[in-house]
Amino acid sequence: MKKKAKRLFALVCVCSVGYGVAKLLQVESVRDKLFEVLGEDKYIALDSTVRLLADLLMWPIDFVRALLP
Amino acid sequence: MNKKYEALFTPFKIGEVEIPNRIVQCSMGGTTLFGWLEPSHFDLEGADFLLKRAKDGVGLVLPGMQVIRDTMGRKWLDSNRQMYRVLKPYMDEYHKTGGKLFIQLAGGFGRSMAVTPWMAALARNDLLNKLASPIVDVQYSCASASATPNRWADNLTSRPFTIEEIQEMVWHFGATAKKLREAGVDGVEIHAVHEGYNLDQFAIANMNFRTDQYGGTLENRLRFACEIAQEIKKQAGSDFPVSLRYSVRSCTKGWRKGAMPYEEFEEFGRDMAESEKAVKILEEAGYDFFNCDNGTYDAWYWAHPPQYMPDNCNLADVEHIRKFTNSPVACAGRMDPVKAAEEIAAGRLDAVAIARQNLVDEHWVTKIKEGKEDTIRPCIRCHNGCFNFAKFEGTENIQSLPDSLHLGRCALNPPTMQHNRYKIVPTKNPKKVAVIGGGIGGMECCLVLKKRGHNPVLFEKTGELGGLFLTASAMTFKENDKQLVEWYRREMKEAGIEVRLNTEVNDLGTIKRGFDEIIVCTGSVPRKMPQIKGFEKTMTFTELLKEGKIADEKLQKVVFLGGGQSSCEAAYDMVYNFKKSPIIVEYGNDLVAAQATCLANTSFLRDAMEYHKVPVYLHSTITEIGDGYCIIKTPDGSFRQECDAVVNGIGFVPSPVGEKAPHVHRVGDCVAIGNLRTVIWRAWDVCMRI
């Protein structure tokens, strides 16, 4: 039981961090800074990868949403 | 407004629903309200795009095609109650524009399903397909009237639908239409007897070998489409308008073989005689509107015409079929709004259906109304952003996954269908930016920077703006490309951007002091292969096309080294418009063997080369070039080919100026060779962050 609770807590933490990072990436000034630090090539590659992952993540979410009454 | 457009802005009726004007936005894959291939949901990006189209003044908007059963998750479209709850207030907002919206519903793709390699692997293996079927059932997605070969993947055959599956689908069309009507949607369009999709495969005799009530006679082959209209009227009400997306003729010569627009051929699909009968049957079944063009997936360039197709390519056929129905008829396919207005005014057509122009310029209808049609950014029909399903010999659909998930974007206008990703945010820190190179990339950078509040200065080494795109647009049939260059030049002038022509920058150090940032857009130069003896004698595309050697009488027989898109386009111009004799030598296994170019474009070029009997040597190369000849090496051996010139069609290499450094950025082909989409999107990626 304790193990399960720990796992659940870890999952919530990962999701929260992921959500926080996603929100942070939406802030223009943060994106400007990333562009400056990473350079345009790495920035564009990172941006595209994050967007693709977000798209794929939405599939199960949309599927579950459709089941809700 | 110019009087020549007046007829476009008169109302007309579909059933009992009045459409405020004659402009119909055709359905385009990806511009959907409920998602594309993913589980159906209310799609905010699509909703934003469609609402903007109505605000611009499009009379009837048809969102992207919606398959009645989700490809991913396999839920029926009528099952997501939450989706319809969100749709209701959206439709209330939408109706404030005065525009109307019909949802396009489809039975699926059948043998036209653009299967990717992993989908083909599932479809070919019964066990794997069964295991995956709760999430994705590729065999179901590819199911058709009969066992027919897939358009994309070799050795993949569709399984026939069972009668139970057909009837189940028919019922869900009705149920979905009912829910759409309750949510305030004005009508539905059935993507039925059109473009060689699933329901069209039932309608075409050569694709339907059934012996039950859905096969055999024309009435039987149209039964599926007719039952759908009847079920919709039964469940959603007899006054709920049902439009039909309809291909008048298939223009198809056989499996994977289309017909040229000027070709006499034996029709493999639906010919005009059968079409005349079909519209009557379909009208009687309850269809209230015929939204027409031509083609199938085997002749894709009729339904998605690239620049090689003539303007208004389907108009004559559509106007002919209109004589056989009392319902209103729209025509799609490279429609010129001026010509459309003339035809509507003359009573030969009821509405004009325009698709991809809506992606390129979000204000084109308003600009026509205000007499500013010269400022409309033209669609160049490249399909690079909106519809880049690609295939060549031996491959399946090789479109990249991010593109598969996001159809309906635009190569020329990045904010389309990605308005949160690409947007103009005014800068708080205006900078002086030097842009080196006056091609499309350089000009796009300047326009974005200026809109954001920066002060760009453009340096161009020649005496005119346009760069290498001037060569690409020089071909006879590239009228839209030429218009695009003019559009950029006009925008640059109107934005008041400083342009220094005849100014070559070879050393960034010379301008570094005067500018906060530098963007290098110096493009590319032709690739060289000095290992080929006599390679220095080759002619560049710029010499052939821009400098006009293509018209030189002395140049009759030309060998293209490389069979990419540029070579094929130039060869087509040469054989079709200049009546000369091109020869293509390609190292790979097919012409235009590239990932990013749409099959509608590439299949035209391949079919055109075959029709015009252009000699094409695949798996081959040139080993020697001399005066008046070259040596072609094929798998069967080498031979001497007499010719007037050899054109270097082996591609380009990046040609950046200066080194990478802080505050120095690179955009376009000087980073990596791409197309207009990669150039323009990167211009935004960089200029949004400066």
Q: Topology, pairings included?
A:
The complex is a heterodimer of chains A (69) and B (690).
Chain A: H1 2-25, H2 28-38, H3 40-67
Helix pairs in contact in A: 2-3
Chain B: E1 12-14, E2 17-19, E3 23-25, H1 44-56, E4 60-61, E5 66-67, H2 81-95, E6 100-106, H3 117-124, H4 126-132, H5 138-141, H6 163-182, E7 187-191, H7 198-203, H8 218-221, H9 223-236, E8 242-247, E9 252-254, E10 257-258, H10 272-285, E11 289-293, H11 300-303, H12 315-322, E12 329-332, H13 337-345, E13 351-354, H14 357-360, H15 364-369, H16 401-405, E14 432-436, H17 440-452, E15 455-459, H18 469-472, H19 479-494, E16 498-500, H20 509-512, E17 517-520, E18 524-526, H21 541-546, E19 557-561, H22 565-577, E20 581-585, H23 599-611, E21 616-617, E22 621-626, E23 629-634, E24 637-642, E25 645-648, E26 652-654, E27 664-666, H24 676-687
Parallel strand pairs in B: 3-4, 3-13, 4-6, 5-6, 6-7, 7-8, 8-11, 11-12, 12-13, 14-15, 14-17, 15-16, 17-27, 19-20, 19-25, 20-21
Antiparallel strand pairs in B: 1-2, 9-10, 18-26, 22-23, 23-24
Helix pairs in contact in B: 3-4, 6-9, 17-19, 17-24, 22-23
